[in-house]
Design brief:
The protein is mainly β. The chain is 0% helix and 47% strand. It is elongated, with a radius of gyration of 26 Å.
Length: 618
């Protein structure tokens, strides 16, 4: 029988009541590869290092397509840099700055600040760290001690560079308007203002050519954003005339022939890589779109290879930008927002920037399907009984979205009449209808919505609770449907007729995001640092505490009765009907955030995290 048990906040539950022997649970990463690249750096041997949002740091050793993990952490890598001795420095957003002297094999923590966004070095082997809130930190004794410098603009530093004469330039992007460029020619003892003008627009990045020219990218609107150049250390600036409109520039790089490369960091069609071979007079588009993903970094090899890091991973060109390919193999840093199982046990994974992946072999290999919506996160996936694939996107963090349908396994997508609707979950009933929760201004909150014609048309289902802010939706193996609101006093609803009628089961005091059920067992999770467990169909709930500040996103029960809870602090597991819980993180990236769970017909559990998909092993 086709398995249509698909949803996002809640996955499939198949329960057999078989007793379970205690065994240690472990997880293994299965892909799909890729992820949001925050920084790239290249050493003198042509080795390239890639920092990610949640998967750590990866190494490409100059040939082939494979990357190797060299620093596995679930932290935002905010900066990567190499000094003149090829020592690698990495800034992590929540733990500090680390140094490796052997290409990432071993790491030593050198600074505790978790707000470092830029790293630079001078000829005296001094190390400079640009901080968002602490100005500039400098070490003059091989990172043993640090002192704070106070440039002219010392808040929200965005970029820090040192030229060949040890002159320091620091750029600020303070959202309060204290933006500008600070200059020091005496190791940071005194500073001067070298800002472009007094407009207050934020400076996103600085770069220095071999000739000593200083380049700056300024974010701005109404014509002030763009690229500027100074030939006198920032005393005077000229805005370059470009034949492309751009308001946000993410990075500027120069190759060994002094060609200029600019990567834009906007959302939408303006994103791309632009190249000038005549000192900025004319520009050529080398790669466009990038699936609407902002470009964070560019590295250029001595042989002319181009690597671009963006929210869509790494793209590379080996023919001077004429052709491009994704080069993500081995980078496990993809933010998986949704999972679903379809026909023939196919596994689907939804990610940011409208990407959907498919595996036909239990996660061993993945294929990226056509982009659904380049500006949206794929929040929910489902496959109906006829094989139609549905994807719900979230644009601008839940303020809008759409539901899309594909009848050819993701080769092409078409919109349904659920446009400008944020849908967070799907279930497919035994009769083949599709039910989702949708939020929009049209509904003045949220509504349960159903389609009886394979997603062609949708209509609201009124469970009698008015406009609501959120639902967790769940289908039990016997076809019974459950839904819960995310109000402070969450209403738990039940339907025994494929959603035609909904009856109130009980009320749970807590902000609920997800629900699971099996016979009399009801479990709810959400924003209350734990789980609500009922053994009598919802009449009474016992609160089970998890780690502090834990948000439970998804719940799942396998055929042996093991309960899984995916949360902001990892995966929890219970083998005694929810009475006790243990954290099962063996194999995961440390502190990995689990956002979605799904189980295959062969009882294999998959977890979607901010560092890819993991498969449960025993």
């Amino acid at each position: 029988m086709i398995v249509p048990h698909l949803r996002i906040l809640l996955a499939i539950i198949i329960l057999s009541g078989v007793s379970l022997a205690q065994q240690e649970t472990s997880w293994e990463p299965t892909g799909p590869y890729g992820g949001s690249i925050t920084a790239l750096a290249i050493n003198s041997h042509g080795y390239i290092f890639a920092g990610t949002t949640d998967g750590g740091i990866f190494l490409w050793q100059g040939s082939g397509d494979q990357w190797t993990s060299i620093f596995r952490v679930s932290s935002w890598v905010s900066a990567l840099a190499l000094d003149r001795g090829d020592n690698l420095y990495a800034a992590l957003s929540d733990s500090g700055v680390y140094q490796s002297k052997d290409n990432g094999t071993h790491w030593v923590k050198i600074n505790d600040h978790g707000d470092i966004v830029s790293i630079a070095f001078n000829n005296k082997k001094h190390v400079f760290l640009g901080s968002e809130v602490n100005g500039i930190l400098v070490s003059r004794d091989s990172c043993l001690t640090w002192e704070r410098l106070e440039p002219q603009f010392d808040e929200h530093l965005s970029s820090l560079v040192v030229d060949s004469k040890d002159r320091i330039f620091a750029a600020s992007s303070d959202v309060q308007g204290r933006n500008g460029i600070s200059f020091s020619s005496d190791d940071g003892l005194t500073w001067e203002d070298r800002s472009i003008d007094a407009s207050g627009d934020a400076i996103s990045c600085l770069a220095i050519r071999k000739s000593g020219e200083l380049w700056a990218a300024r974010n701005g609107w109404e014509g002030e954003g763009g690229v500027y150049r100074s030939r006198d250390q920032g005393k005077h600036w000229n805005k370059l005339t470009t034949d492309f409109e751009v308001e946000l520039v993410g990075c500027i790089e120069f190759d060994h022939e002094n060609n200029i490369f600019i990567g834009t960091s906007e959302y939408g069609a303006k994103n791309g890589l632009y190249v000038s071979t005549d000192n900025g007079s004319n520009w050529t588009e080398r790669i466009t779109g990038l699936n609407s993903s902002p470009i964070s970094s560019i590295v250029l090899t001595k042989s002319g290879q181009i690597f671009v890091g963006s929210g869509n991973g790494v793209q590379a060109s080996f023919d001077h930008g004429n052709t491009w390919k994704y080069m993500d193999d081995g980078i496990s840093a993809l933010n998986i927002k949704s999972l679903a199982v379809g026909l023939n046990d196919d596994l689907y994974a939804g990610a940011e920037y409208g990407r959907v992946f498919r595996s036909t072999d239990n996660g061993a290999a993945w294929q990226m399907l056509s982009i659904v919506d380049p500006e949206g996160k794929v929040q929910a996936l489902a496959v109906d009984t006829k094989g139609n694939l549905f994807a719900a996107t979230d644009v601008r963090s839940g303020s809008s979205g759409s539901v899309y349908r594909s009848s050819d396994h993701g080769v092409t997508w078409e919109t349904t009449d659920l446009s400008d609707v944020y849908a967070s979950a799907f279930v497919i009933t035994d009769s083949g209808q599709i039910i989702t929760y949708g939020y929009s201004n049209q509904y003045k909150g949220g509504k349960l919505l159903e389609s009886l014609d394979e997603g062609e048309h949708w209509r609201p289902v009124d469970p009698g609770l008015g406009g609501l802010w959120g639902f967790g939706i769940f289908k039990e193996s016997n076809g019974i449907l459950y839904a819960t609101t995310d109000k402070t006093d969450a209403a738990i609803l039940k339907s025994t007729d494929n959603g035609k009628r909904w009856d109130s089961v009980s009320t749970f005091h807590g902000n609920v995001a997800t629900i699971a059920a099996s016979n009399k067992l009801l479990i709810v999770g959400g924003y209350f640092n734990g789980l609500g467990v009922s053994l009598d169909g919802g009449n009474h709930f016992a609160l089970k505490q998890l780690a502090n500040n834990t948000v439970v996103y998804d719940l799942l029960i396998d055929k042996n009765g093991i309960i899984f809870a995916g949360s902001s602090t990892g995966v929890y597991e219970s083998t005694d009907h929810g009475n006790s819980w243990i954290k099962t993180m063996n194999g995961f990236v440390e502190s990995s955030k689990n956002q979605t769970l799904v189980i295959s017909p062969s009882d294999v559990v998959f977890a979607g995290t901010k560092a890819g998909v993991y498969r449960r092993q025993r």
